[in-house]
């Protein structure tokens, strides 16, 4: 059932209700070790929120030279545009809290979505994830 998770399926960094709020409607959640992905489908459009957390010794996503440094979001946090699937737009934040690296990415195939709005949302989610990791 969209927007619902059983007692066993829980993302350690964000709950389904909060993800639904950020994505603007009911979401479906997929969990893997070290990641949670929330997807909202609306007609032909999809919007996804992905959270990944790993040891800082493991390879993790980075932002390139055009990244925007973020204050008060863990350590070494950077926001940037992500070039992923063709036809999709995405914004992400990468950072670190103690010995854990994190990635938060919001992506959509709805090209009418403003990148600035996506950047604001991904930064707010990253603040919450970093807070949980502290």
Characterization of this structure:
By secondary structure, the protein is of the alpha+beta class. It contains 2 helices and 7 strands; from the N terminus they run H-E-E-E-E-E-E-E-H. It has one domain: Jelly Rolls, CATH 2.60.120. The protein has a 7-stranded antiparallel β-sheet, covered by helices on one side. Strand 6 and strand 7 form a beta hairpin. The longest helix is centred in the C-terminal third of the chain and has 19 residues.
Largest sheet: 7 strands, antiparallel
Radius of gyration: 14 Å
Q: What general outline do the C-alpha atoms trace?
A: globular
Structural class: alpha+beta
What's the CATH class, please? Mainly Beta
- β-strand amount: 35-45%
Uncertain spans: 1-6
Oligomer: single chain
In percent, how helical is the residue content? Answer: 10-25%
N-end to C-end Cα span:
32 Å
Give the gist of this structure:
The chain is an alpha+beta fold and 134 residues long.
Topology:
Elements: H1 16-23, E1 28-32, E2 35-42, E3 45-55, E4 68-69, E5 75-81, E6 89-97, E7 100-108, H2 115-133
